[in-house]
Amino acid sequence: MKPYLELLSFVKVNNSLSKLNEIFNQVNTLVKNFKVVNVTISTKYKVNNIVIYLDQPELYQAFINSIKKLNPIPIIDGPNKAIKENSSTLKSRENNSPTLESREEILSGYAIGHQKEGITYKCTASFWVRQQGLAYLTTVGHCAANGTLDPHGAVRFFFIEPGTENIKYFGNMTRYSIEPVDRGFILPSDGYSESPFIYSKELKGPLFAIVDFTRTRVSFTEGTVLCKSGSTTGYDCGKVTSVKVKTVLIIKDYGVSNYEDLTEVSTRCEYGDSGAPVFSFSNPLNYGTGVNMFGVVVGINSIKDLMYFMPLYQILDSDMNVITIRD
């Protein structure tokens, strides 16, 4: 190595490759949410940042304002032939207008589940987490109950394309538990990626952005308003009716489960809503500010219109964080 040291050049950088990949995916999400067209996104290692090429930046000020909230802030450039030619992230259309080659995102609130003997066992996507550089989709562990295991002990998971009956495989639940904590983590396959947005069944699109999450114990007072977005009953809000609930739930294809420290909320829920994200608005006077994530629906009482949710402090590992728009 010594004979070649004088030929080498080292440059100190602030952003790791994994960080640049995260920013790339976040920009990808914003491109779709703001319906930006004729855009090029490129990872430029010489400047240690993401470079965004816009043909008409004046049309996308809201998109640009959101980009400026990322850390690090990507570089936004105008017409520049060199960027177009050097980008390896593009496919060409017939009119040579650049388009982003992206992965399909699975949103919190989507209908997901596993299949066995032609039957789909449905639940709801909770939220995405990141652990040791990998992104996992979270839902209830009992969604995999009685699932067919592959040779590695994982359960294949599918999602139902919104507005259709089409079922598509997107990843494997690599680990899960039902008691004492009801949680499962799905590792996506190639072609699918994370999203910090909550899907609305009613609007058939993203409804709220996840801006924060609470991983510590929370003592809700009775009457506190919390919301959920389930794949069956959709978006709904209700009031906390009881806290620190110790309850026994009967789970289909599993049996009786005992849980502690659940919170009871008066809101409608039905089969398929298990796993639904539970949240409140960061600013109740302005829904556009996004939501704060608190937990996951693990049980329901459809007769009395009650749901029971498990808090994040039980679900998340110490090195695991919920993916938000601030990541």
TrEMBL record:
<dbReference type="InterPro" id="IPR043504">
    <property type="entry name" value="Peptidase_S1_PA_chymotrypsin"/>
</dbReference>
<protein>
    <recommendedName>
        <fullName>Trypsin-like cysteine/serine peptidase domain-containing protein</fullName>
    </recommendedName>
</protein>
<dbReference type="InterPro" id="IPR009003">
    <property type="entry name" value="Peptidase_S1_PA"/>
</dbReference>
